[in-house]
Amino acid sequence: VVTGLGEVSAEGVRSRGLTLATWPGAQAVAPTGGRVIYAGKFRRYGNIVILDHGGGWTSLVAGLDRVLVRVGDQLVQGSPLGRAPQGDSPRVTVELRRQGRPVDLAQLLD
Questions:
Q1: H-only helix segments in 1-103
Q2: Can you tell me the distance from the alpha carbon of 71 to that of 35, in angstroms, rounded to the nearest whole number?
Q3: Distance in angstroms between the alpha carbons of the first and the last residue of the chain
Q4: By three-state DSSP, how is residue 77 classified?
Q5: CA-to-CA distance for 16 and 95, rounded, in angstroms?
Q6: CA-only gyration radius of the chain, Å
Q7: Cβ(13)–Cβ(6) below 8 Å
Q8: Which end of the chain has fewer CB atoms surrounding its CB within 10 Å, N or C?
Q9: Burial of 52 (C-beta count, 10 Å sphere; 0-12/13-18/19+)
Q10: Is residue 27 within 8 Å of residue 66, measured between CB atoms?
Q11: DSSP 88
Q12: 21: which strand partners?
């Protein structure tokens, strides 16, 4: 974990999720099942995928080099979403939200 929920990055941006260091080109997968509601480039975040898990829960995976899913795809936990960037220090950010508010994903991990 490079940056946790609420931490401020070197650029002065407060994190709304976990930023993870990955292997170059590592496969990013769905944290749990859901329907893809966005897949593509978004501002300075690179490629992102947003999943709707139902019941007001959504997750976002940002910083992807490549996206392997399309809007409307129904995914199960572990389904490939895309690939992390190549390079010296690739990073992927994962956010979990309930009713649009960030939830500390770290507290849900073992």
A1: none
A2: 8
A3: 14
A4: coil
A5: 6
A6: 13
A7: no
A8: C
A9: middle
A10: no
A11: S
A12: 91
